[in-house]
Design a protein that fits this description.
mainly alpha; Arp2/3 complex 21 kDa subunit ARPC3; 7 helices; 0% strand
């Protein structure tokens, strides 16, 4: 019960930060996607498929908030979590630099897939323009935050890493 309450509270805080706080604090038009970052980091730390369900939930929430293309958000978020878990098991070790790299690359992959799906459904190239302007900022921000969160949550691995 405590775990479910903590997860619900954490998700509520993430959603509030994503929709209310960050749009006011960040430069105009650049709001990092904390829900995508959460899915990617869960996929990196727990690569056994738990990020699939989290990606499904967060994709539905983001699609509902955006109003259109909810299925594109679901597919891109689920794929991002699974891709992060796959990267972790295939190539990377579990350390802060690997978490930062995985967060940046998975963000680029997820946003490229989202732009492709929205481009196909809208028959417009506007999503690709947003990918090239906002996607790089999101990838750099998610890489830095992924590194910092991994550094703070896994101090034993950080001290052993040289």
């Amino acid at each position: 019960m405590k775990r479910r309450l903590a997860v619900f509270l954490g998700l509520t805080l993430l959603l509030m930060a994503q929709t209310m706080c960050l749009p006011r604090w960040m430069p105009q038009g650049f709001v990092p996607d904390l829900l995508l970052l959460t899915v990617i980091l869960v996929g990196f730390w727990k690569p056994k498929g738990q990020s699939f369900w989290l990606g499904l939930l967060f994709g539905l929430i983001q699609g509902w908030l955006h109003g259109v293309g909810w299925w594109a958000f679901v597919l891109s978020r689920v794929f991002a979590g699974v891709f992060a878990g796959w990267m972790r098991t295939q190539w990377l070790w579990q350390s802060p630099p690997a978490a930062g790299f995985c967060a940046a690359v998975s963000t680029i992959v997820a946003e490229a897939l989202l732009a492709l799906l929205l481009t196909l459904s809208e028959r417009s190239l506007t999503p690709f323009a947003l990918l090239f302007t906002v996607g790089t900022f999101e990838a750099v921000f998610n890489g830095m935050v992924g590194f910092a969160v991994s550094w703070l949550l896994r101090p034993k691995e950080v001290l052993a890493w040289k």
